[in-house]
Amino acid sequence: MGEPKALLDWQGQTAVEHAVAVVCEGTGHGPVCVVRAPGQELPPIDAIVVDDAIAHEGPLAALHAGLFALTGEADVAFACGVDTPLLAPAFVRAVLRTLHKGDDAVVPIIGGRSQPLLAAYRVRIAPRLRALLDDGAYGLRDIPRTSAVRQVGEWELISDPELDEADPRLDSAENANTPADWAALVARSTPGRKPA
Questions:
Q1: Assign residue 122 a region: left if phi > 0, alpha if psi is -120 to 50, beta otherwise?
Q2: How far from 51 is each of 40, 42, 55, CA to CA, in Å?
Q3: 191 Cβ contact partners less than 8 Å away, ≥ 6 residues apart
Q4: pTM for the full model?
């Protein structure tokens, strides 16, 4: 991206401020945790902020740090990055509603791709994630080795009436990895504006 994604401008606020606000609304104003690289500068945000133990150790380590920080604060967490600015609170709620008894996590499949960073995880799996890390695991796709992860398809998500109205095309899953990607998402969110 050329600059920290968390600090990208999204309609007058940083991407991390926007993500915190969306997740906060989507979870019914439950606690929000932001995991950052050690020493990473962030604006003041209404969230629990924790550092990755090791910078750039990977998404599994970041998810572990976030779930560990939420232990005793929440039973379930919705995990996302800051690079999905079209994420809708209704999407967060729809994913959380698909988590059933017996599921340790629920991961959407959108456009044929697994979305482990738009997923719901039970906080209690934090020790299992630590064990995976200690065993050399790096990615979120390793979680099913120790936890009951259920995948949900697009049809299950959009059968949720609230989500079908708020985000029927599941734009919440659109992410940005380049400045051009980000500009395109900004343009989509701003009527009459074209991508740079």
A1: beta
A2: 8, 11, 8
A3: none
A4: 0.92
21 within domain boundaries: yes
Query: What CATH number should be reported for the domain holding residue 82?
Result: 3.90.550.10
In this structure, is residue 140 part of a structural domain?
yes
Whole-angstrom distance, CA of residue 73 vs CA of residue 67 = 10
What dihedral angle (degrees, nearest 10) is formed by the CA atoms of 133, 134, 136, 139?
-10
Cα(118)–Cα(107) distance, rounded to whole angstroms? 7
Q: Angle at which helices 126-134 and 59-70 pack, to 10 degrees? A: 150
Tens of pLDDT, residue by residue over 52-83, are 876 667 899 999 999 999 999 999 999 999 99
Closest CA to 70 of 43, 33, 34: 33
Distance of CA 52 to the CA centre of its chain: 16
Q: Render pLDDT for 35-48 as a digit per residue (tens, 0 to 9).
A: 998 888 999 999 99
Residues 20 and 46: their CA atoms lie apart, in Å, by 8
The residue assigned the tokens 């945000």 is 45
| Angle, in degrees to the nearest 10, between helices 15-26 and 89-97 | 50
Amino acid at 136: G
Six token digits for residue 21: 């606000």
Q: Tell me if 92 is assigned to some domain.
A: yes
Q: How far from 153 is each of 4, 25, 110, 115, 187, CA to CA, in Å?
A: 31, 23, 7, 10, 28
In the block, which residue shows the tokens 């924790």? Answer: 50
Token duo for residue 57: 């150790």
